[in-house]
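Sequence of ABC transporter permease (Roseicella frigidaeris).
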Amino acid sequence: MSGRLSGRRGLRILAPLGLGLLLLGLWEAWLRLAGIPPYVVPGPVAIARALAEDWATLAASLLVTLKVTGLALLLAASLGLLLAVLFAQSRLLALALYPYAVILQVTPVVAIAPLIIIWVDDVTLSLLICAWIVAFFPVLSNTTVGLNSTDPNLLDLFRLYGAGRWQVLWRLRLPAAMPYFLAGLRISGGLALIGAIVAEFVLGTGGRASGLAYRILEAGYQLRIPRMFAALVLISAAGIAIFLLLSLLSHLVLRRWHESAIEGGERR
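Predicted 3D structure, token representation.
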């Protein structure tokens, strides 16, 4: 059984990796056979060369983007969890505030990012606000659903044994909502990166340098298309890394007790 699970995990890694290498090879071969120059559509080799040559500049911009994304995700997770707990404890508070959270979510960040950047003079803070707006709602929504989906039979059992409100929250409702919270966190990780990139684009069009989005704009103005694709590769790699890290966190937290993280051979 363990050998079968190991083979399944290996296939899960090798299958997409092999397909990706095949597609990259076909992409490079097509460009060479068609004679398309790199300033129109760069191939994987040209992109890798640009990534190596401009690594110092791109890496510094990547750190700026990751810093904003990480802070926005941390803020979204903290405030989302706190508000969800308050909503679960007070029906009136949920009815009063939840519609405003929905309004915040459905308002396009690209439309309000210029206003935020004008009103907030600090570059990092303005980017953080934009990224947080995008990342906040999934954590709040999923955690609220999780807290409200606690098994009513278990709630009755806790009340039967005289558990107080905070004991029920800490020992029953929060553990029951943990899979929902972690699922919302995985969604918010990618959204925080998207929000940071959108805000950087708006900031970059105003001539203020920050993050990988500015490097994409800069490369576009200079017609350095391989460098533009190299920045896009870093953004995609950052998004994949964030998703994998959050998936690993979810697995480590849930693997001992929740069905979503327990594989067939690990059930007890």
